[in-house]
């Protein structure tokens, strides 16, 4: 039954891509190929979590779907309770229903939004239409993820004009493709990231209602998915927008100081008891304890947080190092780890090429630098709070397209010429 529903759903969306006039910048066969890659990645992800790691209770691709089924049953029993749960306005009397869900509440809470609930809610809404078909729900998640990747491709193309680099960043990076191809937060996150940034770019050109609505929806989703990604993204977006409008370092510096002052003031007035340092310390501690509890064999060296700013500053380069270096060659156990290792090698080579050009770079605030800052900020947060190889490979996936785009366009000129003068490169750049 799964194969039938998934296959038909994938064919329907593929047909939509084939006949739709909305998808531009790539040939229709390239678009269909990118959709086929998503479908193949989804099947591989299912195989991994049914054969390699067969425990359903520990598989994220099933956990949120299963809770969505329970929430759909509550909708049939008590529509009013279901509505309150979906809107986040439940009361004490509704706890008897919420306690039926296994992953609605977490065993730890550090003042950060529970991102499990967004995925559970989306599944519950889909179940009202798909009648709980896992295959159809999966196709919808894949379609949302693919749309996000397509919007990222369009954004990258507008900024860089390099079709091949943009296509690789949006559709071909292994970790990004793999982890965004299931009923997971990452699938929704790619939709939200792509929709938010592409809508902002379009609104900068001209205000249009459809992009305003897409931007609002994407911002709403980002705030309930991975809040740390939104926290890293917003300052970069605002600073880039100010620079694009003013081209003044003085105005930019004044605005940065103003935003920092406003942030501190809001923190003191509205969240006086919340501490970012304590939150990061708690996240790191819980992740390490959870890894030890399940006997994870891939915990990497890390400095334990102690609530001091100096420790966090020391952890920033270590976090980036851990994410970009692990898994190392001693940790290669299966195809998944080999792909992650190979991906890191390629990224490190591109990073080395960018470092060789440090002296020759004209440091201006174009699109490359904000993307690099955003991706490294998220990677450092992942590396310092989730020092487990499997988690790092997964959590870095949403920012890999930005890291790839920025580093690939910081390469030394002769490396660029080596690729762009190649006939195969030129043919692909024309015919993709």
* Largest β sheet strand count, sense and barrel closure: none
Percent of residues in helices comes to over 70%
Order of helical and strand elements: HHHHHHHHHHHHHHHHHHHHH
Query: By helix and strand content, what is the structural category?
Result: mainly alpha
Query: Mean pLDDT, rounded to whole units?
Result: 85
* Number of self-contained structural domains: 3
Strand content: under 5%
- SS summary, helix count: 21
The number of E-state strands comes to 0
Contiguous runs where pLDDT drops below 50 for at least 5 residues: none
Cα radius of gyration in angstroms: 22 Å
Q: Could you give the distance between the termini?
A: 35 Å
Note the quaternary state here: single chain
Shape estimate: globular
Description:
- α1 runs antiparallel to α2, α1 packs parallel to α7 and α10 (185-205) runs antiparallel to α11.
- The chain has helices spanning 2-19, 28-52, 60-77, 79-87, 95-98, 116-130, 134-160, 163-172, 174-179, 185-205, 209-224, 227-246, 249-270, 276-293, 309-325, 335-356, 368-385, 389-395, 400-408, 413-420, 423-431.
- The protein is 74% helix and 0% strand.
- It has 21 helices and no strands.
- The model has no long low-confidence stretch (mean pLDDT 85).
- The chain folds into 3 domains: 2-225, no CATH class; 230-274; 276-431, no CATH class.
- It is mainly α and 432 residues long.
- 35% of the residues are buried.
């Amino acid at each position: 039954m799964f194969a039938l529903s998934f296959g038909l759903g994938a064919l329907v969306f593929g047909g939509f891509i084939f006949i739709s006039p909305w998808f531009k910048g790539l040939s229709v066969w390239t678009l269909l190929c990118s959709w086929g890659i998503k479908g193949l990645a989804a099947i591989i992800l299912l195989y991994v979590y049914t054969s390699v790691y067969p425990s359903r209770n520990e598989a994220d691709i099933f956990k949120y779907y299963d809770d969505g089924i329970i929430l759909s049953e509550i909708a049939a029993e008590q529509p009013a309770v279901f509505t309150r749960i979906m809107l986040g306005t439940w009361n004490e009397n509704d706890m008897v229903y919420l306690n039926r869900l296994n992953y609605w509440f977490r065993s730890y809470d550090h003042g950060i939004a529970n991102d499990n609930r967004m995925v559970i809610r989306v599944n519950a809404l889909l179940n009202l239409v798909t009648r709980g078909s896992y295959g159809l729900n999966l196709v919808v998640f894949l379609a949302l993820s693919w749309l996000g990747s397509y919007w990222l491709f369009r954004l990258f193309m507008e900024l860089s004009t390099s079709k091949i680099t943009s296509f690789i960043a949006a559709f071909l990076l292994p970790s990004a493709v793999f982890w965004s191809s299931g009923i997971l937060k990452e699938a929704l996150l790619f939709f939200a990231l792509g929709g938010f940034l592409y809508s902002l770019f379009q609104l900068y050109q001209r205000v249009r209602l459809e992009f305003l609505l897409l931007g609002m929806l994407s911002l709403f989703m980002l705030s309930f998915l991975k809040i740390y990604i939104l926290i890293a993204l917003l300052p970069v977006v605002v600073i880039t927008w100010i620079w694009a409008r003013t081209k003044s370092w003085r105005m930019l510096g004044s605005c940065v100081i103003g935003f920092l002052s406003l942030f501190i003031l809001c923190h003191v007035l509205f969240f006086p008891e919340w501490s970012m340092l304590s939150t990061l310390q708690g996240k790191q501690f819980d992740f390490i304890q959870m890894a030890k509890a399940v006997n994870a064999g891939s915990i990497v060296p890390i400095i334990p947080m102690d609530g001091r700013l100096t420790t966090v500053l020391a952890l920033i380069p270590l976090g980036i190092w851990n994410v970009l270096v692990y898994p190392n060659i001693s940790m290669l156990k299966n195809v998944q780890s080999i792909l992650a290792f190979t991906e890191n090698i390629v990224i490190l080579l591109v990073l080395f090429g960018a470092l060789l050009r440090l002296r020759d770079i004209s440091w201006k605030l174009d699109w490359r630098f904000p993307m690099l800052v955003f991706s490294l900020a998220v990677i450092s947060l992942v590396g310092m709070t989730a020092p487990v190889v499997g988690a790092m490979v997964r959590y870095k996936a949403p920012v890999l397209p930005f890291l790839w785009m920025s580093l690939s366009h910081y390469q030394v000129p002769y490396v660029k010429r080596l690729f762009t003068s190649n006939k195969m490169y030129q043919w692909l750049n024309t015919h993709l």
